[in-house]
Amino acid sequence: MSSTFSGNTASGGANAGGSIFNASSGQLTVSNSTFINNTADNQGGGIHNEDTLIVSNSTLFGNSAPSGGGISTLASGTATLRNTIVGGSTSGGNCAGVIAVGSTNNMATDNTCGSSFAQVTAAQLNFGALTGSPAYLPLNPGSVAIDAGDNVSCTLADQRGVPRPQDGDDADSVAVCDIGAYEATFADLRASKVNNVGGVAVLSVPFTWTATISNTGVEPAAFAAGQVIFRDHLPAGASYGTPVAQNPVNVTNASNIACSIASNVLTCTAGSATVTLGAATGKFEVAFSATPTATGSLVNPTGGPCRADPDGGIAESEESNNDCANTVTVTARVHLPLVLKQ
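and the corresponding structure tokens:
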């Protein structure tokens, strides 16, 4: 039902169900919903159940009651939970009563909820701050709830309406739904670098290095004014021309990409306005000339990374593909003798 229950209270000695009381003869289905900071004076800080309860892809966190801070269910009731998080209850444990055997792929921060719940810590869940309308708890990169659900029993979309499943961790290119009300989506920045001489240059003859910075993730990557988009530590043994940002695709404010080289470090920043690489296809190139001043290998990078988002300002599904590298071998000029025929 894609709802948020926050700050509700069931007060009075016998009152239960800080947000929802499912009475006898009641059948309640909850999906894609967030329960946070709700309390009950008796039991079931988030939900109290006395009959049939089904909870799918929901997040109950930080609720409290003397018994069952997150969920309580009487012996007369049946509670089935799937792909759901119940955690962080400040009193009464996360669950009270029996969670049905058919429950699958759940997570809790204690051992009160039964065998269908993997026991994790709040730090491992790695929630972001409550946000949105209706409000939800986003999963930050690295959360154990990302790609941990069951695609068969997951809801078709999350609390925001984002389709499930998404490949939130991006490490295996397999889309698996997340546990809880939120389906994680992130940017995914990548960098690559090529040269135009097939990897072999001639001493004193300039060649061109071209780096491509792209976003293949499902969220845009927005770099605020002054934020570094790309940094490349260039090797000694060459002199470098002025870098040019070029060929933008799906980039907002591409003209504000400012690139420069100082002390053999290439830096591209967002200038006076936010530069956004759009989801899935956003990219641009930065090209510059390199004139070899010595024979040998120009190994790039040297002394530091060649990396998109080098300061880690963008939340990404995968950080290991942000780096680039390229090596050019420099050979001496070949001087052929001049033969004169009479």
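(Above: one complete record from the training split.) DSSP finds one helix and 30 strands in the chain.
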